[in-house]
């Protein structure tokens, strides 16, 4: 059973999400919060698998709440945005969010997103990915090699670069002529060695460490 906490200052929005999620087998809504402070408290209290977090709420906003939840629990957070190019996307990832959903997503996308994040994968819509990479490139003027990457083997570095390009485990396996299970094992080991929560954090680390750069910068 995937346990979900809803955090949004609009009661009708929460009711809509609850209706969609509770109609799906294997998903249970364990609580609702109207602001970030309440969301962080309920996350500690109920230990859900996933929090659906609105980014803009009165009092403690979703960004601060995500930072607190990521720092103090193993709960994963999906940020809910009004637009796919929300100005807080980069900051939310840095705060520890595992992915993003646009509020007007189809019910099937919401359900899929909850399942993806609950199993430990990152959820970043294609429309958001390119902007994120551009943000990484613009902000990282002096890459930090990070001691965490020194423990990676050459193969693991190759895999991490492909993760940063947005490839799935199956796509990584095909690119490197590996079995999907081996690719998945490499990704899991990399996350353990790099001390990151999920693939989105791995992408951030790949760019901030200088392990990889956007293709258009590499060609310039």
Automatic annotation (TrEMBL):
Task: Please list the residue ranges annotated as the Response regulatory domain.
Answer: 3-118
Q: What name does UniProt use for this protein? A: Response regulator
Q: Which residues carry this modification: 4-aspartylphosphate?
A: 54
**Domain HTH luxR-type per the UniProt entry, residue ranges:** 145-210
Question: By its UniProt entry, which SMART domains does this protein fall under?
Answer: HTH_LUXR, REC
The species is Promicromonospora aerolata
Q: Which Pfam families match?
A: GerE, Response_reg
Print the keywords alphabetically.
DNA-binding, Phosphoprotein, Transcription, Transcription regulation
Q: Which PANTHER family match?
A: TRANSCRIPTIONAL REGULATORY PROTEIN NARL-RELATED, TWO-COMPONENT RESPONSE REGULATOR
The UniProt entry, under SUPFAM superfamilies, shows:
CheY-like (SSF52172)
């Amino acid at each position: 059973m995937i346990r979900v906490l809803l955090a949004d200052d609009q009661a009708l929005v929460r009711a809509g999400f609850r209706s969609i999620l509770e109609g799906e087998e294997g998903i249970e809504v364990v609580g609702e919060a109207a602001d970030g402070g309440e969301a962080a408290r309920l996350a500690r209290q109920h230990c859900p698998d996933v929090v659906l977090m609105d980014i803009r709420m009165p009092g403690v906003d979703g960004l601060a709440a995500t930072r607190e939840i990521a720092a103090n629990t193993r709960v994963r957070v999906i940020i809910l945005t009004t637009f796919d190019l929300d100005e807080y996307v980069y900051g939310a990832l840095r705060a520890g969010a595992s992915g993003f959903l646009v509020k007007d997503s189809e019910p099937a996308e919401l359900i899929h997103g909850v399942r993806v994040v609950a199993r430990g994968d990152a959820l970043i819509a294609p429309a958001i990915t390119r902007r994120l990479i551009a943000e990484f490139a613009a902000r990282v003027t002096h890459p930090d090699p990070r001691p965490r990457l020194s423990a990676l083997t050459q193969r693991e570095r190759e895999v991490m670069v492909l993760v940063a390009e947005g490839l799935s485990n199956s796509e990584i396996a095909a690119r490197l002529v590996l079995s999907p299970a081996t690719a998945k094992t490499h990704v899991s080991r990399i996350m353990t060695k790099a001390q990151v929560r999920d693939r989105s954090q791995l992408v951030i680390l790949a760019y901030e460490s200088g392990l990889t750069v956007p293709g258009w910068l590499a060609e310039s």
